[in-house]
Amino acid sequence: MTESVSSDDSLEFYSTLTRESFQYNLTKLPEGRFSPSELLVQSYKYWSLDDLTKSLGSLLHEIDQELIDLVNNDYLNFIELGNSIDGSVDLIHDCKIDLNGYIRDLSVSNMKIDADLETVDSLLLYKRKLSVYRAVVNQLVVLEEQLTLFSKKIATADVRELVVLFLSTNKIYSALLKYRSLEMVAVAGKKIAGMKIELKSVLDSKLATATDDEKLQLLKVYSVLGEERAFIRAVRKKDN
């Protein structure tokens, strides 16, 4: 009895079994399940066993040859790599020695830089202090000139001129009060105090012979100096 072939049978004939066709036939199997018998029935049922065996053998030989070529290529590359680094061990050792020396030199340099930075900071602080001292000295020089001028004019100058001179001198000293711990500033403070005493003495002597109008003018001067009570005492002393 002759077996009939249904019209929906897939008559797929391959003259050569290739990797691509074999992979394609594998994709037609249910996913996640590989069955050699199912693969043969589905895709190679019209192949003769002899042709299928030869084709599979050729495909296996092709794959084996590719694997051998890959191994040989990698081996050759490995040999070339070995040859390329031949003699490099000593060079690497020398580089390591040089690097260790560089690290030591770098550490020494860093320590020197830190020391230099500390020195720079100290010098900058010293410079700022010198700038302050120079400004203080300049103010003291001006103040001393004012004191000298006051001493020269106290016997002959007008009261108004003496007061202006005292106030300007006292203003300079007020700016130096934050440096009163310095001996020069402290000495200047004592001179200012003596200057004020001399000025009050002059004012008191003027007040002793002053008219009423002159007393009003002198009261303003005493007020500017913050010596209103001294004015009152001087007036009472005169009246008595």
TrEMBL record:
Gene Ontology terms describing biological process: protein transport
Keyword list, A-Z: Golgi apparatus, Membrane, Protein transport, Transport
Superkingdom of origin: Eukaryota
Gene Ontology CC annotations of this record: Golgi membrane
Residues covered by the Conserved oligomeric Golgi complex subunit 2 N-terminal domain: 33-87
Keyword Thylakoid: no
Location of the protein in the cell: Golgi apparatus membrane
Principal localisation: Golgi
KW Nucleotide-binding (keyword) present: no
Recorded topology in the membrane: Peripheral membrane protein
InterPro entries associated with the record: COG_su2_N (IPR024602)
Descriptive protein name: Conserved oligomeric Golgi complex subunit 2
Organism: Ogataea haglerorum
